[in-house]
């Protein structure tokens, strides 16, 4: 039999939040029954991080690095986050976009240990009771998906759990949310992906997706259970199909503390990039014409926030909408197509003749082009050259994720525009050298926005998350782009200051909540100090 002291020592080594491995001091090894269970050397967390990086870099593919980092997360939580935070530019693309796309596609095949909470149709009537199985009692951030529209990859069913796991890792690394306060939820309502249904290794509910009232009722019960058990939790909707994304946001945005990152987070980071681009193009934001390729939840979410931003510049609602134009697979959104458009598209259907994408560029002459299609290569050479003909510095945002789905590459944008494009993307691209000039395109990653917004809302104990908060977040982010960043073609600050970015956004969001009466917490004398105090530091 193992003695009590031995059990205590072993349990520490197999508890991810408490394990320090070779970082336990000699005194701790005696105190906790670890003597003899570890090699001689006591290593500080910096030495351990060096070992992690050395082993990670030996892996030949990004998916193998993802698996390796996931295993580290399971055995030593603090070392995992120290590694991520101190090496964010190298590691973030491995734990989130673009690698998370492949990880979700292969989720059932690379599965090691469960890391979240699963709800399926057979759980109806039991969800609140099931939540008591979750071991943490003070959840503050919930990320929930139903896996139907994962990045640009489509319906991945329960494989989509990789998204809530990854998003919450970014909440911790980028904004200092304590991992003890995080809960990833997979609303496993089935899948219509035949390949998954026929895969013997697939781990999800093995049936076609439930729809209609059955779907809505399961969502309602799940959210009600979360709010009942965790009344201070903020809920982030992630990667729902466009109609569901909009209907759920409309249903719950004024009832519970929630937002949809694909709609509102993407909108805010895109708005920040457009704000920053005006410092390069010299054209005032209120005078811009902006064209979107794609008219799903991400694109129209950006449009909705830009309407609010333009109204804040003094334009009427109609004038603001006249600045924004949308093109989908069938061409320009115009009023003659009203019968076939979804409700979120109708406000952007203009009184104009029908035309295709290139014709629309020549006719409308946009200053900014935003891609949110999930269709790679749709910003063709003809498209980029057309934008360059009508703009001294055309702004090109190829936002679709992962990298393989981007509307064009950074190299293509610079090459086809003769180096004049102001380029940004949703997934990272390597620096590009064009005619002696080194461009370092900034990534329009939602991680610049949602962690800070969430942190601010949590600290203020906000009732709701408003469009004003996302506008404030966009302005705060844009103001943190330096002249040096712009000189290298970056519309966003470097990732290595993302915790500072999140802090500034959190302060601004919390101040907005307190000033508008949208907060339940008592206002601290020093909001910044109060937020900094709450930010998780993964040190021993």
Description of the structure:
With 540 residues, the chain is α/β, with parallel strands linked by helices. Helix 19 links the parallel strand 10 (395-398) and strand 11 (422-425). 46% of the residues lie in helices and 9% in strands. The strands form 3 sheets. It has a 6-stranded mixed sheet, with helices on both faces. The radius of gyration is 24 Å and the shape is globular. The mean pLDDT is 96. It has 24 helices and 13 strands. It folds into 4 domains: 1-43, Hemocyanin, N-terminal domain; 99-240, Malic enzyme, N-terminal domain (Rossmann fold, 3-Layer(aba) Sandwich); 264-444, NAD(P)-binding Rossmann-like Domain (Rossmann fold), CATH 3.40.50; 448-532, 3-Layer(aba) Sandwich (Rossmann fold), CATH 3.40.50.
């Amino acid at each position: 039999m193992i003695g009590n002291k031995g059990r205590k020592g072993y349990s520490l080594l197999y508890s991810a939040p408490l394990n320090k491995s070779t970082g336990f001091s000699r005194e701790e090894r005696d105190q906790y029954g670890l003597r003899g269970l570890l090699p001689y050397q006591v290593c500080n967390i910096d030495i351990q991080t060096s070992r992690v990086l050395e082993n990670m870099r030996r892996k030949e593919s990004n998916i193998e690095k993802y698996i390796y980092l996931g295993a580290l997360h399971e055995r030593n939580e603090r070392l995992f986050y120290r590694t991520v935070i101190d090496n964010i530019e190298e590691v973030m693309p491995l734990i989130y976009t673009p690698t998370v796309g492949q990880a979700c596609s292969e989720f059932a095949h690379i599965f090691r240990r469960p890391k979240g909470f699963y709800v399926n149709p057979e759980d109806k009537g039991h969800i609140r009771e099931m939540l008591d199985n979750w071991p943490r009692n003070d959840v503050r951030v919930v990320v929930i998906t139903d896996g139907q529209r994962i990045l640009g990859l489509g319906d991945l069913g329960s494989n989509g759990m990789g998204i809530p796991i990854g998003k919450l890792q970014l909440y911790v690394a980028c904004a200092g949310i304590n991992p003890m306060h995080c809960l990833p939820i997979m609303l496993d309502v089935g899948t219509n992906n035949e390949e998954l249904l026929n895969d013997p290794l697939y781990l999800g509910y093995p049936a076609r997706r439930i729809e209609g009232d059955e779907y809505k009722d399961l969502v309602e019960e799940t959210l009600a259970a979360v709010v009942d058990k965790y009344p201070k939790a903020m809920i982030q909707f992630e990667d729902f199909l466009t109609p569901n994304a909009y209907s759920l946001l409309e249903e719950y945005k004024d009832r519970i503390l929630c937002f949809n990152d694909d709609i509102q987070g993407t909108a805010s980071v895109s708005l920040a990039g457009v704000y920053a681009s005006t410092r390069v193009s010299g054209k005032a934001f209120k005078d811009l014409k902006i064209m979107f390729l794609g008219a799903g939840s991400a694109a129209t979410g950006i449009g909705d926030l830009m309407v609010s931003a333009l109204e804040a510049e003094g334009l009427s609602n109609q004038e603001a909408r006249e600045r924004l134009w949308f093109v989908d697979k069938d061409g320009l959104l115009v009023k003659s197509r009203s019968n076939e458009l979804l409700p979120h598209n109708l406000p952007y259907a203009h009184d104009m003749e029908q035309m295709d994408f290139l014709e629309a560029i020549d006719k409308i002459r946009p200053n900014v082009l935003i891609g949110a299609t999930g269709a790679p290569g749709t910003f063709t050479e003809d498209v980029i050259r057309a934008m360059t003909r009508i703009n001294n510095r055309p702004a090109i945002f190829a936002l679709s994720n992962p990298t393989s789905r981007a509307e064009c590459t950074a190299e293509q944008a610079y090459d086809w525009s003769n180096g004049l494009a102001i380029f940004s993307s949703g997934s990272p691209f390597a620096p590009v050298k064009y005619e002696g000039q080194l461009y370092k395109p900034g990534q329009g990653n939602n991680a610049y926005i949602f962690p800070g917004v969430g942190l601010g809302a949590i600290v203020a104990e906000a009732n709701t998350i408003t469009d004003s908060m996302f506008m404030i977040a966009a302005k705060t982010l844009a103001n943190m782009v330096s002249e040096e960043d712009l000189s290298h073609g970056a519309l966003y600050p470097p990732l290595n200051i993302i915790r500072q970015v999140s802090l500034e956004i959190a302060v601004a969001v919390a101040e907005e909540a307190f000033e508008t009466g949208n907060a339940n917490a008592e206002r601290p004398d020093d909001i910044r100090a109060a937020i900094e105090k709450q930010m998780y530091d993964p040190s021993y």
